[in-house]
Design brief:
α1 packs across α3. The protein is of the alpha+beta class and about 140 residues long. The longest helix is centred in the middle third of the chain and has 23 residues. A three-stranded antiparallel beta sheet has the order 1-2-3. It has one domain.
Amino acid sequence: MVLVDQLTKWWALNALADGPIVVVDGFFQFRLTFNSGASFSMFTQAGPVIAIVAFGVIGLILFVLGDASHRIEAVSLGLVLGGAVGNLVDRLFRGDGAFSGKVIDFIDFSFFATFNVADAAITIGVILLLGATFLRRT
């Protein structure tokens, strides 16, 4: 997942440097943006704090992953882990100082925040994990 995320970000940096690629006018495009904050560009100056929290989340997932009793739990946690690492790589290596890097976002639906493959993996992983938890309790 981390490799796919970083390769798509590399593609975005190169292919979208001169402007967006419109796929469906007014609905979907690939547009290069840089996010120094969290989801929906919240906490834009908190990159170092977000990176430290990401390290904690990664550690927690690695700890919990060993106890995953069902394949869906392991896949879900793997998606969240891969997404967290993918965005953490940006924060570590795409800035001037410690944890000051900006996350590359490029998938832009007109009705939603611009995001990347790592963000999609995190979202899908959380939804799968919640669904699996809900189904197991019913």
